[in-house]
Design goal:
Blueprint (H helix, E strand, L loop, with lengths): L4 H16 L3 H7 L6 H7 L3 E9 L5 E11 L2 E7 L3 H8 L2 E8 L3 E11 L11 H12 L10 E14 L3 H5 L2
Antiparallel strand pairs: 1-2, 1-4, 2-3, 3-6, 4-5, 5-6
């Protein structure tokens, strides 16, 4: 867990406000089957496969997979700089992502992305920390980190979690 107390507070507030503002149908499914922010960050460790939904210039939805890393209470994911997903996100940074583990866990997030390592421009202040994490996970020479891949941080405005049996996820 890399989250500070402030980041956990922000995430908990987001989870609460998202559930409160959801439809009665969604609340009937999720209420009593969700997690706290601290529990969620304990479950979302390592690489988590994401389904990433973007939109084309014609407004057509597109979904693809990405390696997600949940750090500091937010999703981080990357793709090839020349991927369609990268073009979509550059033009329309609104995105939805889902991480699911069968019927045991569903984490659904909507928000906007920020490019962390723009080509030919300065990186965000936290890029070096994320890059160290990624190199530790994938290896130093997995990619040409400056030219081949672009990474994003999802700034969520809505997030909900479905976890009917937390003990099953944590092995307790």
């Amino acid at each position: 867990m890399r989250e500070t107390p402030e980041e956990l507070t922000r995430l908990q507030s987001l989870l609460g406000s998202s559930l409160f503002g959801s439809t009665a149908h969604l609340r009937s499914i999720v209420e009593g089957r969700t997690t706290t922010a601290a529990q969620l960050t304990g479950v979302l460790t390592g690489m988590c496969t994401l389904a990433v939904s973007t939109v084309t210039a014609k407004g057509e939805p597109r979904i693809s997979g990405a390696d997600g890393h949940f750090l500091h209470g937010r999703w981080h994911f990357g793709t090839a700089r020349d991927a369609a997903k990268a073009r979509h996100l550059a033009a329309r940074p609104a995105v939805s992502v889902a991480h699911m583990r069968g019927e045991d866990l569903g984490v659904f997030t909507h928000g906007t992305v920020e490019e962390l390592n723009p080509e030919g421009a300065g990186t965000t202040p936290d890029w070096q920390e994320l890059l160290a994490h990624l190199k530790d996970f994938y290896g130093d020479d997995a990619f040409d980190w400056d030219r081949e891949v672009v990474y994003y941080r999802l700034d969520p405005h809505w997030m909900t979690v479905y976890a009917p049996d937390l003990d099953k996820l944590t092995g307790t």
